[in-house]
Structures are given as C-alpha cells and as structure tokens.
Design brief:
This protein is an alpha+beta fold. It has a single domain, classed as 2,3-Dihydroxybiphenyl 1,2-Dioxygenase, domain 1, CATH 3.10.180.10. Helices cover about 15% and strands about 30% of the residues. The chain has helices at about 15-25, 80-90, 165-175, 225-240, 295, 335-340; strands at about 5-15, 30-35, 35-40, 45-50, 65-75, 95, 100-105, 110-115, 150-160, 175-180, 185-190, 200-205, 215-220, 255, 260-265, 270-275, 290, 300, 315-320. The strands form two sheets. The chain has an eleven-stranded mixed sheet with strand order 18-14-15-16-13-9-12-11-10-17-19. An eight-stranded mixed sheet has the order 2-3-4-1-5-8-7-6. Strand 2 (about 30-35) and strand 3 (about 35-40) form a beta hairpin.
C-alpha cells in the first residue's frame, strides 16, 4: 500500500475572494469558483480548496483559526485505500463523503483524509547549469518564462504538541518514513509512495517561537528551477504580497536539511506558501539523520536571524532506527518568561 503525497489541502478562511487572488497570483490554476468555495490545482492535479470558516464541510479541530483545516493524502490503489481505512477503523471513526474522501483524526487531533488518486504525470526540463571548467550549456541560451507555475505540492508543515507521538502515528498507521530529525524541533517524514525529502514536517509547540496551540504553519510548492522561483518572487512582490511573518525568518535561501532553495510568502489563507526548488529525493535506502537545530534548520542568503549569526558547528549523526526521538517525547511547556528571553 502506498500514499503518493498530498492530494488536497482544505482551508478555512475569512476572505474567500482575497485568497482566490493570492493563489492565482502565486501561479495555481483555478478549477472552480463558487460563492462558498474556490478550488485551485498544481500540474499534478493536487488541489487547494478554500472555504469560509464555519462551512459545515470543514472539520472542527482547527475551526477557530484561519489556515489549513484538513490534509487529504492520495493513495495509489483501491486495495491500498481499503487496507488503510480498515486499519484506522479499528480504533477511530472514519467517515466517507460524496467525493470518495475518507475523513478521520490522527491521535493528536489533526484532521486528515485519504482518497484514491492518480496524479498527472509531469516532465520538468531545467536548463543545464554552466560552471567554470564544467560547460553543460554550449551555444545555447537559457529559456525564459512569463510566470511561475507550481508543479507539485511537496509538503505541509504543522505545529503539534507531541511531534514524536504524532510522527509515530503517521509511521505506524499510514506507513510514513522518518527522513530526518531536528532535535527538539521536529520530525520530517516521507509518504511511502513519494520521493521528496519530506511530505510533512511536525514542529513542536514547545519551541519559544511556536504558538501554544497546534495548527498549520506552511506548505511548499515544487517549481522547476531557481529561475522560475525568482520570477515568481518578483511577480508576487510586484502585486504586493509580502514575506514578513516571524516564522519565515529570511528571504531567498536554501534549507540545509533537505537542500531545497525556497522563498515564503505570507498567505491570506493562513500560514505561509513556499516556493520550493531542488529538494533532495529519497527512497527506502535513505538513512535518517539527527541534527542540531541550528545547523539543520536553515541556511540564509540574506536577513540572517540573530540566533543563527556567527559560526554554526556541524552536529549531525546517522540515526537509522530513529532512536534520537526518544529523548524528545512530550515535555512541559517552555515558560513565558523563557520565551521573552529568546
């Protein structure tokens, strides 16, 4: 049985029309506009569904917040879907809607869905990259685009109370793989039928910069190359969209932990939307690693936050059995006084 990745993310928002403008400017393709719902898709067919908060179709877990209220995961075959649903029904309620989505909650209360899904095949053709002494593009000019067009939904990120326990639910009940662990910060996990470094990242609510309650942080959209990313950033900024959330902590940069080049935008649908390029791709031969949070989190091109300035020692070890997670099970919340000192 295999989960292929994110099939759709369903948002609850206050301003439906402003969110529709944002996602179109971001490069998504509109597929449905209705008074109570807007639907957009990337090239694989994975969707963003935007509904008003209070819509009876939305789950109740995050209903008091603007943001992603449910993540639906696409499953490769009917047999796989049946097996996953049967396993979940052993100890929780699972309901099916008219669209063939099976809805349930993880142990942490996160609303999730499973749906039979066949993503559309996409073919990327990034231009070869020249370097001194390594000519890959001779007598050939680079191609130029008119706008950024996201190809995939690479991953979603959620704040959770117990990131170890939440990862273990995804591992044990949905067959996700641990890919990396940022000690004390969170766990990265890959769906068993996916190739991206991670399809979900569980971030601890215990962090001083984290909210006290679980909820949505951001989601990443895969682009072809850095040229497309820069074009997308330029067009978004020209249209007035900003990158100011304290969670983003920087502009154009590359993640150390997954190698991806990225840029975040604050989204009126809640959290951030991330342009994402050149991530690591993995299979089951990958050995998870355990990282110090300073080294593993980010590498900035600009706007380096104070706590990451100066030398950051490399502190990473292989962790094939995920034993480093044991030391980070749910602990008491960091005090407000400690937060103020950070």
């Amino acid at each position: 049985m295999a989960i292929l990745g994110v099939e759709s993310v369903i948002f609850g928002v206050d301003d439906l029309d402003r969110c529709a403008v944002f996602w179109q400017d971001f490069g998504l393709t509109p597929v449905r506009h209705a008074p109570d719902e807007h639907v957009f898709e990337v090239q694989t067919g994975a969707k963003i569904v935007v509904r008003r908060r209070g819509d009876p179709r939305l789950p109740t877990a995050y209903s008091h917040k603007v943001g992603a209220h449910e993540t639906v995961w696409g499953v490769d075959t009917q047999e796989s879907l049946n097996a996953l649903v049967a396993g979940l029904r052993a100890d929780r309620e699972v309901t099916e809607d008219a669209d063939g989505i099976f809805h349930f909650q993880a142990d942490c209360g996160m609303p999730l869905g499973l749906k039979l899904w066949t993503p559309r095949k996409i073919v990327s053709q990034p231009d070869p990259v020249n370097a001194p002494g390594n000519i890959q593009r001779l007598n050939l000019h680079r191609k130029w685009r008119q706008r950024a067009i996201p190809k995939t939904i690479n991953h979603v990120v959620f704040f959770v109370k117990d990131y170890v326990g939440t990862f273990e639910f995804f591992r044990d009940r949905l067959n996700f793989r641990l890919t990396d662990h940022t000690r004390g910060v969170g766990a990265f996990a890959r769906a068993d039928g996916a190739w991206e470094h991670h399809n979900i990242f569980f971030v601890s609510c215990e962090l001083p910069v984290a909210p006290d309650e679980p909820g949505f942080m951001h989601m990443a959209f895969g682009l072809e190359d850095i040229d497309e990313l820069m074009l997308g950033v330029n067009l978004m900024e020209k249209k007035g969209w900003k990158n100011e959330s304290p969670n983003t902590m920087g502009g154009l940069s590359r993640h150390r932990i997954s190698s991806a080049i990225y840029y975040y935008f604050d989204s009126p649908a809640g959290g951030e939307a991330e342009y994402h390029v050149d991530t690591d791709y993995l299979d089951d031969n990958w050995i998870p690693r355990s990282w110090d949070f300073k080294f593993g989190s980010l590498m900035w091109a600009t706007r380096v936050p104070t706590m990451w300035q100066g030398d950051v020692p490399m502190d990473v070890t292989l962790d094939p059995e995920g034993k480093s997670l044991d030391a980070y099970r749910l602990k008491p919340k960091i005090s407000a006084q400690t937060k103020e000192k950070v």
